[in-house]
């Protein structure tokens, strides 16, 4: 049977069930009340500020009421019902000593072994079927990227992909940019040089968090796309050299772009970014856009560069890469805060035409969460 007990001073309660137990403070419970005077019924936004809650709020009484927990607060004399499952889902009563570099629930890091099951969706299906769209977006959220096939072969088709989950983020490159090359073997044997795996636009703050690359022509040999999980690369570095991992998280790199008139973009961020509690939240790696590193102390600079070099070697390791060829009407969506992308070299006759654009992850995750909520309600 469920049970609730209140501490002697009313500062917190303990909610216990046969398989779970958690403590909740009075101020936390009052701040997270869902009654109509505290939260707007339509959108759930708070109607009060913390200063509207009396200082010294305490729990006067608490009792189980079916699937709910009823709590009465003093000095207000206000009673609020809480869904017990909701409370346990929001519980903060657990150890907080996680190792630096942990990843959020639902994030799955990967290496070349993912080549056997690259997350992929069908454009027609995800456009018409919410369940298929949910599965495809869930793949992006879990792995940091996913392909989409059988799309229209038409100029600007990538905008239809972004419309599935969010909005285009316009930059100085425009709403989209062209990646078009004509291979001419009479000049060079390999005119399409490969690119090292990188994240895009690290010189922006904030960076575009989603990138779409859409193929319209692909008749040249080679030019396969490649993705590398930056989180897995950082995990490998941490396993080999915890101090090197730490130094790349503690000190900022600098990135810069000044490739066109009137534009001078600069940012200052760590190559491996952690939240204050140690969660890995971003990787920025782009040698072409790296500016002089000036925020590392003199006595740490050599160690910093050693860790930087090793991270690059891990990223370049073929055991880390997933490679695939995009054909006309195919694209991939990549989490630009996590997954690095690259292009293999290409040669021979033919053309290669891709279009790219940026969007933001908040829209993608919002669409996914809404679809998951809809499924749960059915």
UniProtKB/TrEMBL annotation:
<comment type="similarity">
    <text>Belongs to the gamma-BBH/TMLD family.</text>
</comment>
<dbReference type="InterPro" id="IPR038492">
    <property type="entry name" value="GBBH-like_N_sf"/>
</dbReference>
<dbReference type="InterPro" id="IPR050411">
    <property type="entry name" value="AlphaKG_dependent_hydroxylases"/>
</dbReference>
<dbReference type="Pfam" id="PF02668">
    <property type="entry name" value="TauD"/>
</dbReference>
<dbReference type="GO" id="GO:0051213">
    <property type="term" value="F:dioxygenase activity"/>
</dbReference>
<keyword id="KW-0223">Dioxygenase</keyword>
<dbReference type="InterPro" id="IPR003819">
    <property type="entry name" value="TauD/TfdA-like"/>
</dbReference>
<keyword id="KW-0408">Iron</keyword>
<protein>
    <submittedName>
        <fullName>TauD/TfdA family dioxygenase</fullName>
    </submittedName>
</protein>
<feature type="domain" description="TauD/TfdA-like">
    <location>
        <begin position="122"/>
        <end position="358"/>
    </location>
</feature>
<dbReference type="InterPro" id="IPR042098">
    <property type="entry name" value="TauD-like_sf"/>
</dbReference>
<keyword id="KW-0560">Oxidoreductase</keyword>
<keyword id="KW-0479">Metal-binding</keyword>
